[in-house]
Amino acid sequence: MANTSSRTLRLLSLLQTRRYWPGPLLAVRLEVSPRTLRRDIERLRELGYPVDANPGVDGGYALAPGASLPPLVVDDDEAMALAVAIQSQLATSDGGDAALRALTKIIQVMPRRLRTRLDAVRVSTTPAPWSVEAAPPVDHTVLSVLALGCRDGERVRFDYRAATGAASSRRVEPFRLVPLGRRWYLVGFDLDRQDWRTFRIDRISGAAGAGMPFAHRTPPFEDVAQFVRTRVGGGSPGGRHLVEVRVEAPVATVRARVGGWAKVSPRTSTSCTMTMETDSFEGPLYALGAIGAEFTVVTPPELARLAADWGVRFVRAGSGLV
Length: 322
Known about the structure:
This protein has helices at about 5-15, 25-30, 35-45, 75-90, 95-110, 110-125, 140-150, 225-235, 250-260, 280-290, 300-320, and strands spanning about 20, 50-55, 60-65, 155-160, 165-180, 185-190, 195-200, 205-215, 240-245, 265-270, 270-280, 295-300. By secondary structure, it is of the alpha+beta class.
């Protein structure tokens, strides 16, 4: 049987994984008697963890919201996910002192093996601020494998699912990880296609080091973040939708707002045309809203309909203030 301290931590970890635990089942998982379980529950309460109890033969326990936030118990993958998320937030925006303190605390208590993985992510990452739509979650085991490959100069292999759904196996010399808005991308040299490519990491599975070191190639770009922006949203063949919008604002104003991920061409001294390729329409509308100028959707019709739908809802939301 585990000692009291380790058993208490195990109990806390179990309570955090489910909303409600039947008492008999929880005792079996901990390999203790119901009486010992009750003593352990009381010990958690003394430490500041609010545990609700439902008495009776079929009763059980649940970790309840408290007046303050007591320490949490997380496993390796959860610690990595938290640290990577906070690190990404600090890298791509003003995360604030609270985020920095949280990251410092997590790193301070990490075992060496996790610090090595997190450090690989840090040194292999180039931030590229950009507000886009929410994305599927990233497998942090995959992220760690790719980061170690970037840092150590080791080839990686993985399965990749394209935007069309087509599946393929890739052998890549990884160069850099780039968090773009809420998505992560890998930039690397694709050995089978003999070309530099950008891969969405949430579409990567089965990543593993190939055990083959490589000498880093000189990339055909100076700014890797700009390379990703261009490939993802500014004229690369990767987007499913071609967007063209006329904006009633000078070129300089629009370029300052949208950065390098869209192509902006002048029409007159006070208007321009913005074009880009994208996987979804929310991103362009976010950018157009941030410009703060009148605009007309040229193509595609789906973007025009979405803009009209948003417009109706925005007008309705503000109608009570008129």
